[in-house]
Write a structure and sequence with these properties.
Elements: H1 5-40, H2 43-73, H3 78-104, H4 109-115, H5 118-126, H6 128-143, E1 151-154, E2 157-164, E3 168-173, E4 178-182, E5 192-193, E6 201-209, H7 215-227, E7 239-247, E8 250-261, H8 267-284, E9 291-292, E10 306-307
Helix pairs in contact: 2-3, 7-8
């Protein structure tokens, strides 16, 4: 399509004339939005909110220390105290957020209109992950896939849940590292919980011996080691399962001990105690580890085992 030169010239002049006017209009619109935002903020309430936040933070520190001390004194009720502390802390967070917003923001028609516009969209994109974690935190509190004090495995990490917050869950690993996990991660990934609100937890330990060893005696040794450990939770059963497995291209006998430790805090101590007892007893009774057995094809004569 052919465009005449006078029309192009007119469009250029119109653009030069309207360009500054549009820029001024845009600047005035931004200034108007900023003016509305500044009018909506109660600066006196903001100052009061700062003191409220500091007070709540200090109060929660004392409250958490109190819960921890009470849990140490009443070990049997430690999980209950930690659960109650988490619930109280959760509602304190929600109440503080609502109070701060009510004191700091003046809600009128202009503010509601502003929140319903482009500013709300921009803020929504900025805090969508935070909102998702907040909603996930509420779902965790309602559904309770785990509780504070539970020993869980998640995302390659293994340890105790120490806190369930509005945004994240804190996990203390057995290496004494604190791992912070956003709440929304738990909505899509699987979580393994070892005790689910109880103090005791099942611990599984594997022991391997050769095919030519005394399996019956070895099973008695493993069972006795589990039953006589000072960390075992005897109200629940101690079971030793026996089966043959392939280890590095040779066959071995696996004795799998399933026993309950009386407190999750003693899991590794329980494993160490049982393993030391079993190894000493195996050595005393001459029970050897797996070995590669070489046999002749004719005559059925078995040769000496070669250690793997």
């Amino acid at each position: 399509m052919k465009v005449h030169k006078p029309i192009l010239l007119f469009a250029a002049i119109l653009g030069q004339w309207l360009g500054p006017a549009l820029a001024v209009a845009q600047e005035s619109s931004e200034e108007e939005v900023l003016s509305q935002v500044s009018q909506a903020i109660r600066w006196g309430g903001v100052v009061t909110s700062v003191f409220i936040i500091i007070g709540v933070w200090v109060g929660l520190r004392f409250f958490n220390n109190f819960i921890e001390n009470v849990g140490d004194q009443f070990t049997a009720r430690r999980m209950l105290f930690q659960k109650l502390g988490t619930i109280v802390q959760f509602f304190v967070y929600i109440g503080t957020i609502g109070t701060v917003i009510a004191l700091s923001v003046r809600f009128d028609a202009k503010v509601l209109t502003l929140l319903g516009g482009t500013a709300a969209v921009a803020v929504g994109f900025a805090v969508r992950d935070l909102v998702a974690s907040f909603i996930a935190g509420i779902m965790i509190m309602i559904d309770q896939p785990f509780q504070v004090g539970d020993r869980v495995a998640f995302g390659g990490e293994y340890g105790d849940i120490t806190a369930i917050g509005l945004r994240s869950v804190r996990l203390q690993t057995l290496d004494d590292n604190t791992v912070t996990i956003p709440n929304n991660k738990f909505l899509t990934d699987m979580t393994s919980c070892g005790n689910y609100g109880a103090l005791d937890m099942q611990v599984v330990m594997d022991f391997y011996i050769g095919l030519d060893q005394d399996v019956t005696k070895a099973r008695e040794i493993v069972t006795e080691a589990g039953l006589t450990s000072r960390y075992v939770h005897l109200p629940k059963p101690v079971v030793v399962l026996v089966n043959q497995v392939i280890q590095d291209n040779y066959v071995a006998v696996r004795l799998q001990l399933k026993a309950y430790v009386l407190d999750t805090q003693y899991e590794k101590a329980f494993e160490t105690d049982v393993n030391l007892r079993v190894m000493r007893a195996f050595e005393q009774h001459g029970i050897a580890p797996p070995a590669i057995l070489h046999r002749t094809i004719s005559g059925g004569r078995r040769m000496e085992p070669v250690p793997a």
